[in-house]
Amino acid sequence: MKHQYFKKIFLLTGICISYFITNAQTLLDSTAINNLSDKDKPALLTQLAERSRINGDYKAAIRKAQQSAALALKFKNVTEVTKAYTIQASIYATTKAFVLSKKASDSALFIAQQSRQPVAMAYAYYAQALFYNAIDNSEQMTKYCGLALKLLEKTADPYLSAKIYYLLYMINTHWDDVKNVNKYARAATENALKTTDYNLLGNCYTALSVAADYNYASTKNEVFRDSIIYYLNKAQNLYQQYPKYVARKTYGIACINSADYYLRYFSDTDQAAKARAIRYAGMANEVMKGAINGEEIRASSLGILSEYAKRNKKFVMTEAYLQEAYSILKTQKVPSYYTLINIVTALAKFYEQQENYEKALEFQKKATEYNSKYFDEKRTLNAQKLEVQYEAEKRNNEVKLLKQREKYARQQKYLYFGIAIASLLGLIFMFRSYHFRLRYSLQRERQLHLEKQDAELLMKFEKEEQARLKAEQLLLESQQQQLQKEVMASQLQLEHKKEVLFQLKEKLSDNQKLNINKIWNEELLLDNDFEEAKFQIQQVHPEFFSLLNQRAQQKLTPLDLKLCAYLHLKMDTKKIAQLMHIEAKSVRMSRYRIKQKLGLGKDEDLKLFLQDMG
Q: Which regions form coiled coils (predicted)?
């Protein structure tokens, strides 16, 4: 019979053992509560609730956590309230009471947000992570773990840090992420070593052994194989040194994993390994007798013992071990169908090998029955998870909406407050204005006779001002005459320049190769016509040419601008050809070239485009 299913049982049991809540330096008996004041009781009640939780007594743990929360609320001890709700969220998540787990985690978050204390917020985020881990929402779980760790960077709490890293380690074992399994197992252990919670440290050592198991499976390096048993021995030693502070289940997990280690990695002929495996399996079975929720570990230990009995041909003992394991699992209120299926399947195979086909068929039927129940259980749980997740998202959206409405209401309140202040200031201003006007009226009456005396003096000043304005007007007229003279000089200068150009024309008229006359006449005619068109356009649309040049993707020549001006004035091709002394074909070619420079499409009309400008 193969042993891999045992490995999965042991590892998953070890993973699910701890959702640690408080950093208890010492665990006190419940009788000590009476010796404390009400103000100091919440911390002790939280510690006792955690001790009950790790020992599997969930009812007692819930009761003590509720008492702690009630007392802590009374004295406004936000951190202890949050811890108490986090314990409840953890227990409800473990027992698959997803609705109650969500309610407890939300209560923790609500209380913590009222105070915004970093440690309280970190515990509240951890409670949210526990809930989302229970409903298999790894994205939200990782998010809240990250938020909690970020807060703990400012406020050191190695105990809570160890719990969060342990939770991250667990989720990465589901994904078989070897790198992160090692990373978070080490981080959890490093933080747990800074505390005095030996149960937490024992589970962290077990986590390191699992990480070493992953490492050995991927590398086959003997060092990693030796590390597995090394860390499991450290976890066992903690129980032997501090039996009151380490849960029996934590010790049982370390023992059963040690037995599984020798079963998987050593040959049948290695008598020393076989003896150690049998011893560890026996220790796990013995320590879990009478322990709450210890049936699964006992059944797993009996499964290993049955395997060794079968190897030694001791079939009576093999059957006895398997039957005992089956009987133990059936006593559970909520059977662990996964382990139960493995046990009855082993019994079916055993009886088949013994040629007891009637018994083999009986247990094979039981395996089919349990498989069906296991499937129904998983389906029901998945439905519950989906429903709770839907409700959680719905509630989160409602909370966001309420916060948004609260924000708007607050802004509206500030607005009304501002309006009230503005109105009050307005009334004050009006009263002060009336007061000042009254005073001003009285003063005005007293000053009227003074103003009458000043009137004559003012008239004198006005006459002097008129004389000054007249002098300024004469000065402006003189400046205007000077400007006219300058304009006239400029015109004369332009005439002189034109005269020079005409003389140049006459001197070059004999040149047969270069007909300067034709060029001169054409350019002069073009300039005159263009200036006239430009004048007409600028009278109506002075920004026509500037807009045209801005739109152009290539530089427009004066001829291009002139043609655009004619088109803007709605002239047809024939008229434009006559004015520009060119053929109609050249006008059409020029129009096509201008369309390209302006970046117009093939179907766009240049004439309409130019007429729409301005």
A: 452-486
